[in-house]
Amino acid sequence: MDITSQDIENALANQEFELQYQPKVNFLKGRVSGAECLIRWNHPDKGYIPPDNFIPLAEETGLITQITAQICLTAINAVKELRAGGFSGSLAVNTSPLDFESNIIIDILQNAIDTKQIVPHDIQIELTETATLNRQDVVLSRLHRLIDMGLKLVMDDFGTGYSSIDLLSQLPFSALKVDQGVIGRMANSTKNLNIANMVINMARTLRMDVVAEGIEDKNTYQFLAYAGCLEAQGYWISKPLPFDEFRTFVESNPVYPSSQLGMIYHSHLNNVYFRKSVFDAMLYANSNIDLNMASAANPDIHFESENSRLGQWYYGIGQELSSRENFQSIEEPHRRMHEIGRLLFEANVEHSNDLIIAFNESFERVNKHLHLLETELMFEENARLIEAAKGGA
Ligand code: C2E
Ligand code: CA
Ligand code: CA
Q1: How do residues 316-347 score in pLDDT, each as one tens digit?
Q2: What is the whole-number distance in angstroms between the Cα of residue 212 and the centre of ligand 3?
Q3: What is the CATH number of domain 263-381?
């Protein structure tokens, strides 16, 4: 199918572009948490044209930013309308780095925030490195501005050639979207399964949330819930829907399986990592390496227990488990671990063996109760699954 830039210009002028909304579900709550906005083009003569057939041309010709501008305005109106109906999720729009070579997109979003049409939480920006980052500094500084405005930046298609670990180091992405190819291949081999796991672990280590797209069956959904992803998207939940259908979908308030097991696993990993970071920092300090250097080498040391990744889970969504004894038993030793960790790190103590022993004791108590809590939840989950399998048989 031959698409010309004139076709795209006409489509822009005649408002031929529409959006569909593909629901996303929060794995921890089992509820709809938002949608990704996907462009749809029904050409009056040529019929439906998939985005992959014209987005690259739009990028080459620079028309992409006009498209993104229209999409942002549509998404802003959509989220306004949804919020009026009680929706509290967010809509994610797809953008290209080229969109940030000018102020056009930033101005649209800033204006919508200033005029209180949206709150920053309402719109997320998905960014794919499809086009090479020209004028990189300008683009990066605009993306930083977006984050300062309070918007969330999501790296799209992670695991493909279009998104790089290098870009992760240059921008504070709040989430990483694992490419559907990585998700789709998970079931093929243990190796692919481990690749998916490693990507999730990497994102969590960098304090980012993980969105998994292209989930086509329940097993994949379950696996990713246990692996510690935050949000799910894919045909198993729903295909992209026109606005009215999406609104009906949200209003029906569908419930999906949810689990905290993944977060408990990552809290455990975080705790192991924190212990090692503290010990490393101590070794640096005792070998007369500049302390700044030691802390730069250990960016994940958060001495306020609330700010550690374990703490963020514990005082956040983890509170749903607050009536459980094993959950309660984590707080005191975890707090203590961070207190002693600070002493070990700051004091540059030569005779710190007693502190290290106390640190280890707290560490082991945290682990013990995390593991007992995990086992408790696993028993319950198992019983649920067996029950569901009986029902399905
Ligand atoms: P993407 O951002 O990776 O979007 C996800 C694509 O996967 C969508 O295809 C969606 O319909 C499809 N999909 C969702 N769930 C499943 C699933 O379970 N299985 C499979 N096999 N596919 C699934 P779509 O709508 O054809 O979009 C293709 C690409 O075009 C998008 O990939 C995105 O890169 C680009 N695109 C779409 N809308 C826009 C837009 O508004 N602006 C820009 N710049 N790019 C867009
Ligand atoms: Ca996307
Ligand atoms: Ca994607």
Answers
A1: 999 999 999 999 999 999 999 999 988 887 76
A2: 9
A3: 1.20.120
